[in-house]
Design goal:
By secondary structure, the chain is α+β, with helices and mostly antiparallel strands. It folds into 3 domains: 113 residues, Regulator of G-protein Signalling 4, domain 2 (Orthogonal Bundle), CATH 1.10.167.10; 218 residues, Dbl Homology Domain, Chain A (Up-down Bundle); 125 residues, PH-domain like (Roll), CATH 2.30.29.30. Helix content is 53%, strand content 11%. It holds the Pfam family RGS-like.
Amino acid sequence: TVHEHHRELVKSRPTHLLVFLQHVILQFDCSSLLCYLHADLFKNLSTKETKKQFVEFYNSFLDKSAILRVQIPHNVSFELDRTRPDLLSEEQQRKFVQDVQLAQAPEILFILSPIAFIPIPLYLPLSSSPVFLLSSISVDEGVLPPEGVLPGLSLSGPTPQQEEQDPRLLELEQDPPNWREHTPPDTLKDLSKKETKRQEVINELFATEHAHVRMLSVLQTVFWKPLEREELMTATELATIFPSLDEIIDMHCEYSPTLRQHNFIVKAIGTTLLNRFGGTEGEWFQKLTSRFCSHQTWALEQLKMRQKKDPRFNSFILEAESRPQCRRLQLKDIIPTEMQRLTKYPLLLENIAKCTEDTLEKESIQQSAECCKKILNHVNEEVKQMENLLTLKDYQRRLDTSGLKPSNELYLEYKYLDLAQRRMIYEGPLTWRVTKEKTLEVQCVLLGDLLVLLQKQDDKMVLKCQSKSNIAVQEGKQMLSPIIKLDSAFLREVATDRKAFYVIFTWDSGAQIYELVAQSVGERKK
């Protein structure tokens, strides 16, 4: 296909590939892409070279302490836990590399999808014509990344047979035991009030973790697997809706049993918590949850649009949501549960620390709480960046630059403005006081290098020059540009209005003063 030709063309030109890699490294987690490209190298290696390269591949991407650790299929991680990578046969090594490469497909497709509204030409000095790096998949129109965009992609998650045999799923439907009911009465009497409170909070941590894993398993068993089985969505589509779900469930499940190592009275929990939320395990958990939570808004929008357009899909979702496992929650309520869980950890751990008397134990728990806060802050930032990107893509899709034509200079510079290739810092409604008699309601978009003032007209977001007189518009002089370069502008407060501020902007036509009014003093300070 045309897209496959473009992709192979980019792969064959190191300079173009380097620019694409730079784009990914600056805006995304690059581990999946680097792993995918590294795996491609094995196609032309000899037996001896394969053995050597596989160990490097393992150390870079598969080892639990690897800086670029990626999502690993269950069959691969299971075997690597039992066998040293250098002891595997060449056939096994090649098979595992292929499996790992396929597992990176959803993440790479998602990297492509937010910037795939229109083909984006990449002009390079060594090229006489533009190379279109990206496909023209319009995510906002409800089209999810298709299979086959990358070579050899036909990704499928864990087989239903494997998951249905997992005894954890049966255990999850049962409520966890209460520590008081399983603790001898004499032992209970010997506990101080503070220790009793400590056990209560630990039990709350355990019980809520159990409930959370149960709800995550609903996404997997009530929605993901049946949707794939009924061929309502492809495996690749589902992997972009529920990214890293299998591994997130595994991490929560591995963590839960360790809380009950010493009957139902938990003596020490600090080391367990620190191992869970700190170090390499904490970094891996942060990476998985960032990926899942940052896709959340996009995933909900795709599901909403699919339900509107596909009656069969809509019927399936409504029927699935009516099942008792969903506990009267809709899919749109269940997907955000991982993000909600992250917000609970710091307070729960701080409450345990307050009831802990042992100094070292208390320090470990407090340190774990701090690790949870760092993870939460990181995930919040990832979510914000992805939501900002989706907002910019929406504005870009609706952007109309024809209003810049009165200024030939502005129109030539910004007629191909791509908002989505910039970083958004803030956006919100403002009032633009062009003159005392003329005010406009605009959507202010503050980017890393520009302040953009968009006017909403029907479904369009219009960039339009303004003037303080009709004569200026006709002559194309002394117009107020809706695009302000930040490196040529500075702010001043308006003494008579605390919600207002001046932007003084210097460009080729001379200095211009903009008077902008926020909806509140708080919004102005942002």
